[in-house]
Write a structure and sequence with these properties.
The complex is a heterodimer of chains A (about 140) and B (about 90).
Chain A lengths: L1 E5 H14 L5 E10 L2 E10 L11 E3 L1 H13 L3 E10 L7 H5 L7 E8 L2 E11 L6 E10 L1
Parallel strand pairs in A: 1-3, 1-8, 5-6
Antiparallel strand pairs in A: 2-3, 2-5, 6-7, 7-8
Chain B lengths: L1 E5 L13 E5 L3 H11 L4 H4 L10 E5 L2 E2 L15 E6 L1 E3 L2
The chains are: A alpha/beta (about 140), B alpha+beta (about 90).
Chain lengths: ~140, ~90
C-alpha cells in the first residue's frame, strides 16, 4: 500500500507545519481515490486549526471547510484521499488521540514532526477497520514526478 | 421529493460504492432514515445503538450544520443537498 504524492506537494504540507510551529497545522489531501491501497494526491489544501484552546497539541478541521473542499474536489472529478497535520516537538507517529478522533476509514493520515520550526520526518498511516476495531497501518509515501 | 445525499469516501463501501444517493424525504431526519433503509449497512456507521447520530458524524444541509437548524426536523427541498461529514481531529 502506498500514498503517491509529488515532492512539491509533500514539501507544501511540511512547510505548513513549519509555518504554524509551535502550533499544529492541518489540512486535506485531495486526489484520486481508487481504493484504500491506491491513492494519489493531486492537491494539498491547508486548513485552519479550529482548536484555538489548545493548538500546540490538538487539531480540528471545521466540517464546513471539509464540505467546501469535498465539493470542489468532486467538481474536479476527485475525492478526499486523506488528511495531514503536524506534531510540534513530538514524533511523526500517531497518538492515541489521533486514533480516537480518526473516522475516515481507507484514508491516509499524514503526520510531520516539527522541531525548532523545522520539519523533520513525515509518515503516513492508513486508517483501517470499522469504528469498534479501527487501527492505523504504516503506509509508504511514494514520491512521484 | 428526491433529495441528494453526498456520501464521504469512508462510507461508500456501505452505500453500494456510490458517492451520492437520492432519497425521497421532506426532512433531513426522514432522508437519513430512508438512506439507511436503502443501505442497511450504513446504519451502524451513522447511528449509535440508542438511535442517535454518532457524535463524530456531522450532517449538513447545503452549508448549514443541522444542529444549528431544526436538527432531524429540518425541512429539505428538492434542490437541497445533504452532506455526511465525519469529523477530522487529533493531536498528541
Amino acid at each position: 500500500m502506498a500514498l503517491r504524492i509529488q515532492k512539491g506537494l509533500l514539501d507544501q504540507l511540511r512547510e505548513h507545519g513549519e509555518q504554524t510551529y509551535p502550533h499544529e497545522c492541518c489540512g486535506v489531501l485531495v486526489g484520486d481515490f481508487e481504493d484504500a491501497d491506491n491513492k494519489t494526491v493531486k492537491s494539498v489544501v491547508a486548513c485552519g486549526n479550529t482548536r484555538t484552546d489548545s493548538p500546540q497539541n490538538r487539531y480540528h478541521i471545521s466540517p464546513a471547510e471539509l464540505i467546501r473542499i469535498q465539493r470542489e474536489a468532486a467538481l474536479a472529478g476527485q475525492d478526499i484521499v486523506g488528511f495531514y497535520h503536524s506534531h510540534p516537538d513530538w514524533p511523526a507517529k500517531w497518538s492515541s488521540t489521533d486514533l480516537d478522533e480518526a473516522h475516515w476509514t481507507g484514508c491516509s493520515y499524514v503526520i510531520t514532526s516539527v522541531e525548532n520550526e523545522k520539519a523533520v520526518l513525515t509518515n503516513s498511516f492508513l486508517l483501517q477497520g470499522e469504528e469498534q476495531d479501527k487501527h492505523f497501518e504504516d503506509e509508504l509515501i511514494e514520491v512521484v514526478e | 421529493m428526491p433529495i441528494k445525499v453526498l456520501i464521504p469516501t469512508p462510507l461508500r463501501p456501505y452505500a453500494g460504492k456510490q458517492s451520492s444517493v437520492e432519497v425521497n424525504a421532506q426532512t433531513v431526519g426522514e432522508a437519513l432514515n430512508n438512506l439507511v433503509t436503502q443501505h442497511p449497512d450504513l446504519r451502524k456507521h451513522l447511528f449509535a445503538e440508542d438511535g442517535k447520530l454518532r457524535s463524530f458524524v456531522n450532517i449538513y444541509l447545503n452549508d448549514e450544520d443541522i444542529r444549528y437548524l431544526a436538527k432531524d426536523a429540518t425541512l429539505a427541498k428538492e434542490t437541497d443537498t445533504i452532506t455526511i461529514v465525519p469529523s477530522v481531529a487529533g493531536g498528541v
